[in-house]
Design goal:
CATH architecture of one domain in chain A: 2-Layer Sandwich
Shape of chain A: globular
Largest interface: C-D, 71 and 70 residues
CATH class of one domain in chain A: Alpha Beta
Radius of gyration of chain A: 23 Å
CATH superfamily of one domain in chain A: tRNA(His) guanylyltransferase (Thg1)
Structural class of chain A: alpha+beta
Largest sheet of chain A: 6 strands, antiparallel
Number of strands of chain A: 8
Helix content of chain A: 40-55%
Number of helices of chain A: 9
CATH topology of one domain in chain A: Alpha-Beta Plaits
Oligomer: homotetramer
């Protein structure tokens, strides 16, 4: 009797059990967006004493992880956009990562991001230990055209803008002595732009990262290095960079035609 | 011009963009299994010099993370079974975690597991640094009856058994001087039980964790403590434990009727 | 140049085109319910002058089609319940019809039902021509346990009961000279049982088909005929019958244990 | 006790039962193709003595039904292509028919087609009664770009061409005295074009409907009639026509830019 098992071991029918598995696949030739969000980061940011309304260290840690994701999935992910505790990753139309199985794509990206977040935490919060394991959840959405994908990215950047306006006002009110409830009440239904002027916030002087979020992409190099000996090219990807720029208008995309190139 | 945006900001139509989102939900009143697996752990285990065929530290780290998952998702996860670099989590039939949205359930569990894995790494590999971020992928499967769920768990434990027999033989052959290729060749299509005897492996003396995998569950306490003052019960969950036992036969389940209780 | 085609014929890549096909499969070992409904039957019933609130010919035609469906899909469909212009078909848990592909199952059943409806129309409406093609739409739902499947059937029969009470009152009011709008107004939020008494409707004298809908199933024969020569059994299915009975209580199901037998 | 029900009627919980329903929706802004196929039409065509390899009456009946479908779903279906016992219907990118619910779209189209098929049967087979109810099954596929949609249509027309070449050879061989098995054997792996010449078939003289299938679409009228009194336009749809033309090359699509107009 090997292993100490019951005799029923031969009756176990794996094929039958397998038949319950299903793999929902993401439609071919559509842009895949994987968006991850911090789980309960409201609490996480309080316990780890993030600066409000924006903590530069926390934002830079997020972007650092996003950069690692682009390097890890360099064949498949062409762009990422992040704000607050969320990050969206754009997989190219033609990707066949995990045969486009939704669960594997989402979980592998979220897991790698999380792992990097914990490892690099001390690089950004050198004087503060992680008090419990941070985690993120994720989802995937497909877009059938580049135009709609750009609408998605614009939507996220508009959201960044509006949330930042709101949060800047909110914390200014709290700093001025109001309770959180009073601050909330005072902003309910308010015209944010008017409120910013009223509170004498010099909005355009705020760091651009707070106002426009972070865009992560490959800075492609033109001069591909060719190994003199074996003729192989190296460094053809260039390096991953993060910029804080307007991705709603066309200018950025015209300057970087390779990012959303449909034929890549 | 606030924030430095193009004027197009008002044209961004979030509702339209939202319409592409879909949330595949897992069928109500079915058992949900979330199984995670290490990504490229063959390489990870080599680079971090795991003992072959089984590294106790690595297995205990995995189980430690699984225990943390049960504590974190105590309302929803009732059992976990792990072997090698995989772990299966059983959510109770009646769970409404994230409204049973597959992506969120999978990603949140995998992310929390990953986060814990990195944080606790040094507790199990005190003398070895993580050389790069480990990651896991996950998937969900639903089972419509408790009987089939038990078939699933039996299948995993049989798999543990067969893989362990194979790996034990393989590494014994390698230890005896054969190359990996020769060892593989020698085991191709072989009757593993006969091979074990031939190689003079005292299989039943191997640690039971290697032979039967790890089962993680709540050790429910019978004597619920009642606060004398407010009448509230505390500690009603008991504590999470890990055992290495036969989960194919009925004995374990009869002794722990609460775990797969359909009405919970 | 064969066929008169452009030369591009060789460039057509069927494999790529195929990759967009997806077959959502219904979870194994769950009860499948296919429910069909008449499309725009409000208009259809007016144009074909159905008697209100219930047209016996129309109901019998529906049941006749359902019986034909049970005969056609005798390996897979074990029960059907119908009311008004809808019919629900129950496929047995273990069915592998079309490998449980949702689209094929739904469309094939709905199409066969429709075809039979048109063909048999004249048997029930001998003096009235079909003025345009009637059509039905369909959907599938899976239930993981027999208990929940019975809840589904109970829900449909309760719906039959409530709708019939309402419609009986409504048309009585119209018959008494009220306009449809007035009748509707008078029933808005009304206690139907009280209304029935108020309108002096002898509800329990109404044909039981109107009050309880139609249940269609195989009347299994006990004495299977054995061919004396080849030993093969014939007529083992018995014949399909329609009954108007209570399917909410247990009595019917206890008398016909074979219908929802999980092991069949 | 109204209706003769058990008292359990109040315990029926419809909300819970509802929660098992799921509506898989077809991705917005993709082209939807609904393709239907005859169920067991090999047998159906034999029993109803269809002329081989092509029965003009049967093909014209199919196209007649497709035309009726385009008229019925005039807001949503812009093109159809048929061959043998199959027909593909193209719904425009922007359609919101049944909120893009797959089951309803497929079943409603297949049901209407079936209904029309039975009703119009006698117009094409005046001397032959329907011996049993014909039925069709259906499926839906989405295509994210017009280019891929055209690849789909090209694939169907290539299939038509190849099948027709094969069937023409097959039935010529049978007509020449071979058994069906011998004919099949003789064509196995054969170069069809060479075989056609060998059998002295004047392929290009065959009716173009057999060689190129049937395309059904709206012949849009340019001069929209304006009612002199109320200013409303009528007949803006023109009429549905069927043509037998090359849809692989660009010529047809350039001549009819409105059919696959993305903005419609």
């Amino acid at each position: 009797e090997l292993g100490g098992f019951t005799e029923e071991i031969d009756n176990v029918k794996s094929e039958y059990v397998h038949s319950f598995e299903f793999d929902s696949k993401l439609m071919p030739y559509t842009w895949i967006v994987v968006r991850l969000d911090g789980c309960h980061f409201h609490r996480f940011s309080e316990i780890h004493e993030f600066v409000k309304p924006n903590d530069e260290r926390a934002l830079n840690l997020m972007s650092s992880c996003a950069m690692a994701v682009l390097e890890e999935f360099r064949q498949d992910i062409v762009f990422a956009y992040g704000v607050s505790d969320e990050y969206s990753f754009i997989l190219k139309r033609t990707t066949d990562l995990y045969q486009r199985r939704a669960s594997k794509i989402i979980s592998a990206i979220v897991s790698f991001f999380t792992s990097t977040y914990v490892i690099r935490w001390k690089d950004y919060f050198s004087n503060r230990m992680l008090k419990y394991p941070p985690s993120f959840d994720g989802r995937a959405v497909c877009y059938p055209s580049t135009e709609i994908l750009r609408d998605y990215l614009s939507w996220r950047q508009v959201d960044c803008h509006i949330n930042n306006q709101y949060n800047t006002c909110f914390w200014k009110l709290v700093a001025s002595g109001k309770s959180k409830r009073e601050a909330q009440q005072s902003l309910k239904g308010a015209q944010l732009q008017a409120k910013i002027e009223e509170l004498a916030i010099d909005y355009n002087k705020l760091p651009i990262m707070f106002r426009q979020g972070s865009s992560v992409f490959w800075d492609r190099v033109d001069n591909v290095l060719i190994h003199p000996e074996n003729g192989k090219s190296s460094e053809c990807y260039g390096k991953v960079i993060v910029e804080h720029i307007d991705i709603i208008g066309s200018a950025f995309w015209l300057e970087h035609p390779g990012i959303l190139d449909e034929k890549q």
